[in-house]
Prior knowledge:
CATH class of the largest domain: Alpha Beta
Order of helices and strands: HEEEEHEHHEEHEEEHEEHEHEEEHEH
Distance between the termini: 44 Å
Radius of gyration: 21 Å
Strand content: 15-25%
Shape: globular
Number of strands: 17
Amino acid sequence: MGGPRSIGYPGADMTDALQGAVHRSLESGEALDIQGTGSKRFYGRKPTGRPIDVAGHRGVLSYEPSELVLTARAGTPVREVEALLAEHGQMLAFEPPRFGEEATLGGTVACNLSGPRRPYAGAARDFLLGIRLINGHGDVVRFGGEVMKNVAGYDVSRLMAGALGTLGLLLELSLKVLPAPECEQTLELELDQGEAIAAMNRLASRPLPLSGAAWIQGRVVLRLSGSEAGVRAAVEEIGGEAMDGTAAVVFWRDLREHRLSYFEHDGLLWRLSLPPAAAPLPWPGDWLIDWGGAQRWLRTDLPADQVREQAAAADGHATAFRGGDREAQVFHPLGAVMLRLHRRIKKAMDPRGIFNPGRMYAEL
């Protein structure tokens, strides 16, 4: 166990300044709008409160390649983390979308956004080992640790993933990282939407090294990652047309970062989370499917209530991901029981309601 500790990129510790700002907010009752570099300001409801900039609180604090653990301040750019990991043949396995070159690690976890590898490797919250934050009392507290076996407070750490900063101001994050694959190959198959969903689910049930499965404009795009022998055997089993290596890297990057032509439109973009094997929904609009069928992007003129109602009928939920009215309901409405639970968590973590109020739900 152990091995040399490698410190990555230098940075600045703004803990005292950030804690002072939280204390002043508690005294005045003025809410805080937690900001990083703004790469994901489009996500969630319209921010309110006095801006507090956390992007300067940055730097990799420790990195143990032999232990597959990295700890960094929340304002550390994701690109710096990924560059450091790449030097050691490792990666953030949830393949986080940046939506901007200066995207921070804290913002990535706060949004809990994951890329095409998510159904095969796990979500951002699955790799979160521990956190350090400023809570709604103005105290600096730590939850979790730097190993999976340290479960004290682990659930609290995971609550921060996807909370959009509504439960506290993130200071540090410890993440589990994984080795990068030895080999990757991307295949294309011409299939309609129904055939594509069936094929992606059939392949996911097989012992194949899938790390990406998407459908766009009448074609399924599959990524295989692993050992050379394993990838080669999977290619022979699946068939299809092999995509050039450089083109494949660009495709998966552009899918993750929403740079494909599909995303180059104004207006409301819906993200539907559905059971992977759910049949195609017979709605008017333009579809793109990712995560082997579990994440479906939609552009449509259907009313929001109808989209959410039909998504729920298919055992899923719908999020107004980008565009549209950001002062309206953005995330799928909570039922009465879930709303009570969310309110209890918010009250426990942020009793004065100073952190990003209303960013997720108007009621919170």
